[in-house]
Each structure stands twice: as C-alpha cells, then as structure tokens.
Write a structure and sequence with these properties.
The complex is a heterodimer of chains A (300) and B (413). With 300 residues, chain A is α+β, with helices and mostly antiparallel strands. Chain A is built from six helices and 17 strands. In chain B, helix 6 links the parallel strand 2 and strand 3.
C-alpha cells in the first residue's frame, strides 16, 4: 500500500512539473505584432511578460523574439496567429557541460588536419578579394529624402557612408539636365544645409541632388522641389482648417507638423514640431517626436 | 585465463615503475631544481627577450580559462538576467538622453545608471534640460573616470561638466591592458583619502545593500570578472522606444536600469572591449562586448555572489614543483634506460600533460570558480626535457671534480 501511495505521489509530482506554466518575455519586436490574452487584443510591447495561454499575432513583415522561462530565446518571423502553448518545446533549458565540451574540443582539434598553409594549399585561402566593390554604392541616402519640398528655412540633406571617406561631393542638377550638375560642393560632413545653396535655386522649380564619396559616382538622384510661398501658405491654411473644435495650439502645431512631414515639407515640419514642443514642454510625445525627427534627419 | 584485474594491473604497474623508479634519486630532485633555477635566471634578465617571439606576441593576452568561454560554451546556459535592463542611448544628444532618463524614471526603477560622460558644455538649452534631470533623479548613478598617470603612480579624478548635479557617481574604469581583454574590475578606489565605489558597486549598493556589503567585506583590490552573459542575455530596449511608449509599463519597475551604448553589429566597435567571451581567444580579433554589458556582467556577478578565487602563487609554484618532479622522474627513466624512445615519449607525455592540466584548470574554473594558473606547470614540463641534457653535463663535471654521486657518470649520452 505504501509503495502504491509513493508511486501516486511521484506521478502527481511529475504531472505538476509537466503542467508548469511557461512564461514568455517579449524581447524584441519588428513590424505589427499584437498579443491576444483573455480575448483582448493589445499591441505587443517589448518587455511584456506573456503566459502560455496568450496568442501572438504577427502581421506580414513582422517579427517577434521571445525568451521562455528566462532561458531559451527564439524568433517567430512568419506572419500568423500563434498560441504560445505551441512553443513548449522551445522552452527546454540547455545542459551544457564544459568538462565534456573540453574533451570534444581537444579531440576535434587533434583530429582536424586543417587546410594546410596559404603557401602549400593556396586554393583554400583565396577567398579574400583585394579590391573595393563598386556594385554597392558607398553612400546611403534615407528614402525619406527621396522627395523634399522646400519653401524657406534651413534643413540638412543628409547621407550615410559605408566607408571611412573623409570628403563627399554634393551635386545639384537641373531637372532638364541630369548629366552635368550645375552646382557642386565638397564637404567633410555627411550632410549639406539647403541654405548653403538656396541662392542657386529658383522658386517653383524642381531639382535633383545626390552625394558621393569624393572621386566616386552615385547615380541615385533625389528630388528637391522649391515650392513657391503662395502654394505652401495655401497648404498650411488648408491644414489649419482640418483640425477639430477645441484643438489647442500645441495640438494643432503637432498635427500640422505631422501632415507637413507626410507631404515632404521637412524644413517646415521641423518648425511646427519645435513649436508644438515649445508650446507644451511637458508633453513627452511632442518632445520625443521632435527628438526622433531631429535624429532621423541629422539635425543638430 | 587470467582475471581482468591482472590484465590491467600489469600496464599500471609498468607505468608506476617508470614514474617512481627515479623519483627519490638525488639527480631527479637536482634536475628539477635546475628547471626552476633556469626559470629564475631567465626572469632576472632585465631585457625583453621576447620582442621577436611570435608565440609570445600572439599569446600576450592569453589566459587558458578563456577557452572555457570562447570554445567550451561556459555561460551559454546562464539564464536571462531579469534584474537588469539596458536602455540603448544610441547616438542621442544630451536632450535626448535627458528624455530617455525621464521616461525610464517614470517606470520607477530601483536604481538607474548612465554610462556616458560629458566633458564640456554644449548647447545651453540641452545642457540645462540634462542638468535638471540629473538634479531631479536621486537614484541615478552617473559614471566618473579616473586617469592613471605614470603607470598608476598618480591618480586623477576627471571632472565632468555636470559634476555638481550628480546625486551619485561610480567610476567606470575596468582593469585590462591597452586593447587587451578585460578580465578584472576594481570594486573600490582610494583617491585623496576618500574611497570611491565603482559604477557596478554603486548600483548594487542601491539595489541590494547586503550584496554590496559582501563585496565590501571582501575588499579585494581587484576581482576577476565571472562573465556569464552576452548582450542577448539582458533585455536591451531602444531609448526611442522607451520615449515613444513602446515598452511595457512595468518593464523597468524595481530593476537596475542601465543607460548606455549597445550595438551588436560586429563592424561597430564604439565603446566595445575585448572579453574572454570573444570567439577568438588568441591572436588578432575585434572587440566583442559593449562597455555597458561588461558593467552588467559585473553587476550580475555581485548580485549572484559569484566570486572567483584565484589560488595564491605559492600554490601555483607548489603544483609546478610536484608536477615537474614527477615528469623529471619519468623522463629520466626513459633517458637512462630507453634512450631510443626518449624524445618520442617525452613529446607525447608533454602533449598528454598539457591536455590533462588544461582540463584540470578548466574544470576547477568552471565547477568551483577556482582559478589555478597552470601556465607555470606547463612551462616546467616543456623545459624539463632540455634541462636533462644540461643537468647531465653538469652532473658529470661535478662527478669528475668533486666525486659527486650521479646516475649519469656511467651512461653518458
């Protein structure tokens, strides 16, 4: 009888251990990811702790990395609706044995004969190419600068370099001639302020611009529209009328800034974001948006 | 048919005889002593004789225990540390950092740490925003820096632009050669009669005072860092996500929040250092861990009470003497009685010893957190073979001159 009781206790203990609830920590997210817990769907947030009864919804292009029971990390990168219960097998903890690994390591090293030396077996050592690649552009210009509408003020046109280049050449082209730039400027910075060439452009005209590492070429052209003040004023007037009743000045400034950014009036959007942050200095959203905007467009 | 124990008994007996036959001979003891005299004499040469030695140069920053981290998976099974959250400040300017700290403070962390220094004034508006944040958050520890001049003979505390505004500071200096691996940290530093806490120690002092007390009672000049986690074993959140409210509300509540620069891109080596967790444990490599993650590892270690005990050098020397003596006895046996096999057996014995003592060192380090420096033992084993030839000549000369009794006077090689 005692033996039977003992077995029953052991069985129940094992069952309890098997049924132990796993907890999942949302480690990182990309794209649209939401969590459905108790039939309530909320936007997924980094640092959120989820039970295994929760569901994870990943939209196309989305991705979520989770950590189960503080031990194992895994990533879900296919769109779909996943019950976290299904990831039980990803919760297994590793059982690394350093001493055993030492023996394996020594054995592998002793039985590995390598690939000889570069002098004796050159083909095993010839994957290093001693040249610079020209198939990849060394300059990356943020797609948000693909089209910039500009009326007044100062705003940087920026880029990033994949090399340690010390100098860059900014080139400005007329829309009628994209072969020869009508204005060039060499700079050591990875941006150029529009004010520095504003006198060279005419209101109501469109231009193309690019930047390249000095001595190289960059075929990627971006559009700069010098919009007339009248056109811009009409747009702003229209945007102002679209606000709801009782809209505070800071709210209005923030809304207009957002819509101007969407319409590629970046210099002007910056002014309105700054205005919103000044009018409501305690508003974290306004301040953080302004900071992000400044960071995105390299405004110091 | 012979019983099994007799099958294995004979080879064991044979090995036993090979090792012990000459163990108590005067020649074995004197030859072993000559190995250490030789090591001492080389050490006394006041010149750097290794400047062209490729092995010495390649292994300059080598520690045998690094293999445990880089190749044997030490630390890979360590659990994610949910006591520490790292906020990546990226390239945020001063105002951006101020906003990140404010957003972090809103979640009521137990203590916050900022791993950035500010040498001079910049934009007045940004500076005033940041200063206000420093003055407001009393649970924020900001790093300080010591400058060690003339090989550490003089120390200078570097002034920060916001010095007067910090509620708490902890020095961020870690211990390591220039561009070498960071294996130690100094928990405390004395400067002008005052004791300063390191960044990690100061954070732990706020988070878990008893754990800090334990560190304080040890009061070691340096502690060996027991690396347990790479960057992905800590929750790293982007500062911008924190400001934009994309982080769950209680993620930072009651935790140690570290604001620092994190980048897992191997091509970005800003604020990265070499650690024993580097994939490559010897030779040329690139830095592998951001400074803030090194601090996080130190914090985890103090909180876990995982301190590595380095055995005193007399233990190291004692092990080297004992092992050297056994090897010398074994080598002398082959040298005198099976000389034709001497070099082959010596080389095989050296290899087997290197593997065995490497294993012992790694096992002690991994299982008991005891660091036994086996390099001296390995040097002694390597030198023993060459010293036998020298000792033979010396013993024969002594025999002729002073009738020194030696086993070599009859069997000269």
């Amino acid at each position: 009888m005692k033996r039977l009781q003992f077995l029953l206790v052991m069985f129940l203990a094992a069952g309890t251990a098997m049924a132990q609830d796993n907890s999942f920590l949302l480690y990182s997210l990309k794209g649209n990811v939401s969590v459905v817990d108790n039939k309530v769907e909320t936007k997924a947030k980094v640092g959120q702790l989820l039970k295994s009864s929760a569901n994870l919804k990943i939209a196309p292009g989305g991705m979520a990395t989770l950590i189960c029971n503080q031990a194992s990390m895994f990533t879900v990168n296919k769109a779909g609706n996943y019950s976290l219960n299904k990831f039980k097998d990803s919760c297994r903890e590793g059982s690394n044995n350093v001493s055993a690994n030492y023996i394996k390591y020594v054995w592998n090293q002793m039985t590995s004969h390598g690939e000889g030396s570069p002098g004796s077996n050159r083909k095993a050592f010839m994957n290093t190419v001693g040249a610079v690649s020209r198939s990849i552009n060394n300059i990356w210009i943020d797609p948000r600068l693909d089209t910039v509408n500009y009326t007044a003020g100062d705003f940087p046109l920026s880029w990033k370099s994949y090399t340690d280049a010390g100098e860059f050449q900014f080139s400005l082209y007329n829309s009628s001639n994209i072969a020869d730039p009508f204005y060039t400027q060499v700079t050591s910075k990875s941006k150029i302020m529009i004010n520095s060439f504003a006198t060279k452009i005419k209101e109501g005209s469109s231009y193309y611009w690019t930047s390249a590492v000095k001595g190289e070429e960059n075929d990627e052209l971006k559009v700069l529209n010098f919009v007339s003040k009248d056109t811009y004023d009409k747009l702003v007037s229209l945007l102002k009328t679209q606000g709801g009743a009782g809209e505070a000045p800071a709210e209005q400034a923030y809304r207009i800034a957002f819509m101007l950014e969407d319409a590629h009036y970046l210099a002007e959007a910056y002014q309105y974001y700054s205005k919103a942050a000044q009018l409501a200095p305690d508003n974290v959203l306004y301040r953080s948006t302004l900071m992000s905007f400044k960071k995105d467009y390299e405004i110091k | 048919m012979k019983p099994f124990h007799k099958h294995i008994g004979r080879p064991f007996k044979s090995v036993h005889i090979r090792i012990t036959k000459y163990l108590l001979e005067r020649d074995t003891m004197f030859a072993t002593a000559w190995v250490f005299i030789f090591i001492l004499m080389v050490g006394l040469i006041p010149l750097n004789t290794h400047f062209f030695d490729p092995i010495k140069l390649a292994l300059e920053d080598f520690d045998f225990n690094d293999i445990a981290y880089s190749k044997l998976g030490k630390g890979e099974d360590t659990k994610f540390d949910n006591r520490v959250v790292i906020v990546n400040i990226g390239h945020a300017d001063r105002e951006g950092m101020a906003m990140m700290i404010e957003a972090g403070a809103a979640q009521n962390p137990k203590v916050m740490g900022l791993d950035a220094f500010f040498e001079t004034e910049k934009d007045p508006h940004q500076d005033s925003v940041l200063r206000e944040v420093f003055e407001k958050n009393k649970n924020l520890v900001v790093i300080s820096r010591f400058k060690y001049l003339h090989h550490g003979e003089e120390i200078e505390l570097m002034e920060d632009h916001f010095q007067e505004s910090f509620a708490q500071q902890g020095f961020a200096n870690v211990v390591g050669e220039d561009r070498g691996s960071i294996r130690h940290f100094a928990p405390f530093e004395q400067y002008k009669g005052k004791e300063y806490n390191s960044f990690a120690a100061q954070l732990v002092k706020n988070y878990d005072p008893p754990k800090f007390e334990r560190l304080f009672k040890r009061h070691k000049e340096t502690e060996i860092i027991d690396y347990s986690r790479r960057t992905e074993k800590y929750l790293v959140v982007e500062g911008e996500d924190l400001m934009a409210g994309n982080i769950a509300d209680s993620t930072l509540t009651g935790k140690i929040v570290l604001f620092g620069y994190v980048n897992t891109n191997p091509n970005d080596i800003e604020d990265k250092v070499f650690t024993p967790m580097n994939e490559k444990f010897a030779g040329k490599s690139i830095p592998d861990m951001n400074g803030i993650v090194v601090h996080a590892n130190i914090i985890s270690q103090i909180l876990d009470g995982r301190y590595i005990k380095k055995l005193p050098s007399w233990v190291t020397w004692l092990v080297a003497i004992l092992v050297g003596w056994l090897h010398m006895s074994f080598f002398l046996h082959y040298y005198l009685e099976n000389h034709i096999w001497f070099h082959l057996v010596a080389k095989l014995a050296q290899l087997a010893s290197a593997i065995l003592f490497g294993f012992i060192g790694t096992y002690l380090f991994d299982r008991y957190r005891v660091k036994l420096d086996m390099s001296k033992t390995l040097v002694v084993i390597a030198l023993s073979v060459d010293i036998i030839y020298f000792y033979e000549a010396w013993a024969v000369w002594m025999h002729k001159k002073f009738n020194y009794k030696t086993v070599f006077h009859q069997k000269h090689h």
